[in-house]
Amino acid sequence: MTDGNQALKKAGLKITLPRVKILELMQEPENQHISAEDLYKKLLEIGEEIGLATVYRVLNQFDDAGIVTRHHFETGKAVFELSTQHHHDHLVCLSCGRVIEFSDEVIERRQLEIAARHNIKLTNHSLYLYGHCTNDTCDHNDE
């Protein structure tokens, strides 16, 4: 049984072709922070006839089961990434929508210190930093 199939079983989900194919695509590094629509397009590119409604339904099931994490960046659409990754924060370009993951021990330590100063024990947190690309790789750097 593959890791993906084990993840589905552990989450209490039946192993179906759409779930397996979507999970396989989500495991590819270039498919992190991907929208349902873009995932649907990638499925079509590889010859998988899985409908857009099914992609949305499966991603919602994966989100409910904790297999993926849904992010609502300021780009206007939800994107998904696997939940099994180490904790990280995000930089988001408001022009092209590019998402950069980063980890910083100083930021993590400061967040814990600030929470403790206010008598809060952190159980979870997300940090999103928004801006605009300043290099030539941005699709919309002339705006």
TrEMBL record:
Subunit comment: Homodimer.
Binding site for Zn(2+): C93, C96, C133, C138
Gene designation: fur
Record carries keyword Cytoplasm: yes
One Pfam family it belongs to: FUR
GO terms (BP aspect): negative regulation of DNA-templated transcription; negative regulation of siderophore biosynthetic process
Coiled-coil positions: none
Statement: the UniProt record of this protein carries the keyword Magnesium: no
Cofactor or coenzyme needed: Zn(2+); Mn(2+); Fe(2+)
InterPro entries reported for this sequence: FUR, Fur_C, WH-like_DNA-bd_sf, WH_DNA-bd_sf
Binding site for Fe cation: H87, D89, E108, H125
Compartments, as annotated in UniProt: Cytoplasm
One term under GO cellular component: cytosol
Family: Belongs to the Fur family.
Cofactor note: Binds 1 zinc ion per subunit.
Molecular function via GO: DNA-binding transcription factor activity; transcription cis-regulatory region binding; zinc ion binding
Keywords noted in UniProt: Cytoplasm, DNA-binding, Iron, Metal-binding, Repressor, Transcription, Transcription regulation, Zinc
Domain of life: Bacteria
Record-given protein name: Ferric uptake regulation protein
